[in-house]
Amino acid sequence: MSGFLEDAYGARTQEAVNAHYDRWAESYDAEVAENGYATPRRCAEALARHLPDRAAPILDYGCGTGLSGAAFRAAGFTAIDGADVSEGMLAQARVRGAHRTLHHVSPEAPFEGIDVRSYAAVACVGVIGAGAAPFTLFDDVLAAMGSGALFVLSLNDHSLADPEARARLDSLAPSPHTLLEAEDGEHLPGIGLRSRVVVIRRG
């Protein structure tokens, strides 16, 4: 295992996270494939269970190299747009070609130039939590989405160990949002890491 995956979950500034993923971009797909990366497929299958219209537009936020977009395409979805803070990752996603459009965004203005309310679903596959985007992105996505839209996300073991992640999931109980599904399963079995795939309907 290379140092990129070993170092992916360490605490660092957002600038350091972006730089890490820029450096990792060219070898990312091969490394996570070697370790059995299962979460994109699991997220796509979970969304498909709750969104029967495969032509409905999806925003794949934190799309990385496009692995998640390819998983949504494999599940039958046809209108997938991507966004990411890493130019290096987006360059790989452009080559893969799973998305209709790709947006480069910044942590300070996460949805600049994107009409989030026009999407039937927003996905954050492996995006929120340890070594990636802050947990506040969870709130930002829900606030930006349109009523009735679906939010599919994954939280790996490192992220679930953080009380902030658990607090956000627990806060859904009395909220206007509906927790449709929360399923634990494989994330990167090659390193013994699991994740929880969550689907929420925005109130």
UniProtKB/TrEMBL annotation:
GO terms for molecular function: methyltransferase activity. Keywords: Methyltransferase, Transferase. The keyword Secreted does not apply. Signal peptide: none annotated. Pfam families: Methyltransf_23 (PF13489). It comes from Hasllibacter halocynthiae. This is Methyltransferase family protein. One of its GO terms (biological process) is methylation.
